[in-house]
Design goal:
It is a single chain. Helices cover about 25% and strands about 30% of the residues. The protein is an alpha+beta fold and about 130 residues long. It has one domain. A six-stranded mixed sheet has the order 1-2-3-4-5-6, with helices on one face. Strand 2 and strand 3 (about 50-55) form a beta hairpin. The N and C termini lie far apart (about 60 Å). About 25% of the residues are buried. Pfam families: DUF6497. It comes from Palleronia pelagia.
Length: about 130
């Protein structure tokens, strides 16, 4: 085994050991637009116990309307977020689903990036829209 081969083997194995959130995960939505899971943030100030599921949807930059994104966000809440909420400990009061045309830091405001957010109350196997 050459020195170069010995370096490549651990690097290839490392990619397999990354936690799921560190790898791109494509998620299917009703509109068919490409959506990728970005991260989940727990307990950020503002809504009490809440889980914020953040997704990247590059087609938002190409004119996906809020109405289309709204249906996708409801789907992401019920089919993606709810099954991933913890079964032990206190239940979250809210689930926030966000779509952004590209990854940005949580809380960052970038005027030229399209972002959509919706807040839901988890009730059993359903997400109930919780507009403020």
């Amino acid at each position: 085994m050459t020195f170069a081969m010995r370096l490549l083997i651990p690097a290839a194995c490392f990619a397999l050991l990354l936690p799921p959130a560190a790898r791109a995960e494509q998620v299917q939505v009703p509109s068919g637009q490409p959506v990728e899971f970005h991260e989940v943030i727990r307990d950020a100030p503002g809504l009490g116990l809440a889980y914020r599921f953040r997704f990247v949807a590059p087609d938002l930059a190409r004119g996906v309307t809020f109405e289309v994104a709204e249906a996708d966000m409801m789907h992401l809440c019920t089919s993606y977020a709810l099954p991933r909420l913890p079964n032990l400990g206190p239940a979250p009061n809210h689930v926030v689903i966000s779509l952004s045309e590209r990854q940005i830091d949580f809380g960052e405001t970038v005027p030229d990036i399209v972002q959509f957010f919706e807040v839901y109350r988890p009730e059993g196997t359903a997400c109930v829209w919780d507009g403020f």
